[in-house]
Amino acid sequence: MKAMRIESFTEFGNTQSQNREVIFRRLLSHRLPLLPNERIRDKMRAMEKVIEVSEESFDLDVIEQSFELPVVVDFWAPWCGPCLTLGPILEKLAADPNHEFVLAKINVDDNPGLAMEFQVQGIPAVKAFWEGDVIAEFTGVQSESSVRQFIRKVAPSERDLALRQAKSLLATRHWSDAELAFREVLERFPHLPAALLGLATSLIMLGDGCEAVTHLKAIADGPELIQAKKLLPLATFLCRQEELDAQSEETADPIEIQYQQAARLFWRDNLAAALDGLLEVLRQDKNHRKGEAKAVMLAIFEILGEGDPLTQTYRRELATVLF
To answer: Which of 83, 102, 114, 154 is catalytic?
Structure first.
């Protein structure tokens, strides 16, 4: 059973709801001043990662605190089996120092007004608050990996924030800025697979295939390993050409000349011409360098993304040549 439906709540007076709305509006405009003893109590609460919340303490413990830290509210009940499964997962993540959030547990039997106000139809129901608003939620028991992903979204760690910033630069194709950002992440979090993959991708698009090969080969596991294997042929292709040019080695093989020229065009950021050159190699010999040209093209598509016009055009061309 993933979630248990709440059939009814005890009566909840309109007066209490109206009072809470007034308090909430005051909090949004400016947080209520705290008396000295309340300030001390507030600091003590900030040290607690898992707290029990009632209708009386909700404004202080959830709404006001959410202006400082994300607050994840767990609506539950002692008789709810799925709640007893989800609860320890949330508490484990709350205790993780990599995630800065407070877990607020609300027993719906003891606090029916809060459950009604936030339209809790089934439990467990989890709602994440930030600056007084619900920013994300889910209902029903979830796997630990799914809950962890939810927490990363609403309460990202320092590492996650750094990665998110670097990945945004990668997504907008600011290759040089992305390279620097991923290097900074790796200085703080060495051997992080996502950062290694991001740095290698940036380096490939900047034409530094040899260093990219090193980082891709350093990825040993995780989903990044699959991506690394896809990009490795392109990084190897660029690295080999870099070494050949440094040695001033020339070849008489016209297909290899075409293949090498495609690498030089890639360095010049002329991707369309580079893809044309790779297609020409495949037209002449699909098995040249054991069919590496196909893997190189697929790696370029992987970086550009399926929505890119070059990917769409040249994927069709590739299919025509191969089949």
So the answer is: 83
Tokens encoding 213: 């090969």
Query: Is residue 300 within 8 Å of 275, Cβ to Cβ?
Result: yes
The three-class DSSP label of residue 247 is helix
Domain boundaries along the sequence of the chain: 4-156, 160-322
Q: Is 239 considered catalytic here?
A: no
C-alpha pair distances (Å), 257 with each of 104, 254, 262, 266: 65, 5, 9, 14
Kindly name the residue from 4, 53, 80, 194 that is annotated as catalytic.
80
pLDDT in tens, 159-196: 888 998 999 999 999 999 999 999 999 999 999 999 99
| Straight-line distance from the first to the last Cα atom of the chain, in angstroms, rounded to the nearest whole number | 49
- pLDDT tops 50 at residue 28: no
CATH 3.30.1490 fits 160-322, yes or no: no
| 83 classed as catalytic | yes
Tell me whether strands 102-107 and 71-76 are parallel, antiparallel or unpaired.
parallel
The 3-state DSSP class for residue 155 equals coil
- The architecture in CATH of the region 4-156 reads 3-Layer(aba) Sandwich (3.40)
Tokens of 36: 């000295």
Encoded amino acid at 289, one letter = R
